[in-house]
Amino acid sequence: MSQEPSIHSFSDQEIRISRMESIRCQINAGIKAYFLWEDYASVVTLIGAAERVLSDLQPQDGLLGFDAVSLRSLINLHIKDQFAKEAAHDLRAPYDFLRHADRNKYGEFVVHPVWVEFTMFLTTMAYQHVSHSLTKDMQIFMCWCLSKHPNWSKESSPIRSILEQTGFQAGDITKAEYYNLASQFFAQ
Question: Which pLDDT tens digit goes with each residue over 147-165?
């Protein structure tokens, strides 16, 4: 019995990749780059690409409530008001810098780790809303993020249930140690 090729196989066969599969892979790869290598350029590129596709699939006004999964809607529904304007303004700046080499060939970008975490948080929430699921890596990231940044989510937000159900908190360990421990925890 032959096995279906996946997007992770290296065969000469044609491989079909759905939009949601590519988004899932981009987010998971971005999460691994974040935890295991702290490779912020890769994280920004991967998460930014996933976010763009998720945004393109959604209503642009972001004011439609739970039926909309645009970034604006996610900010309106899940982010505390005092952080909403800043989040909306700065959300895509580093990703846009990396994908538009024609605008500043020799420039540098400044990316703040908190911005990366915030963008990963919003993109993971959008993925969950569209797919009705989270991968193990996404669950690990959400536990890390919500234990590190509890003010990023309203108490009434459904996403908080991940942290409450697992109780798995970020502690005084490296990101790679956290990822490895959490991977074992979620494998049980």
Answer: 888 888 888 777 777 777 7
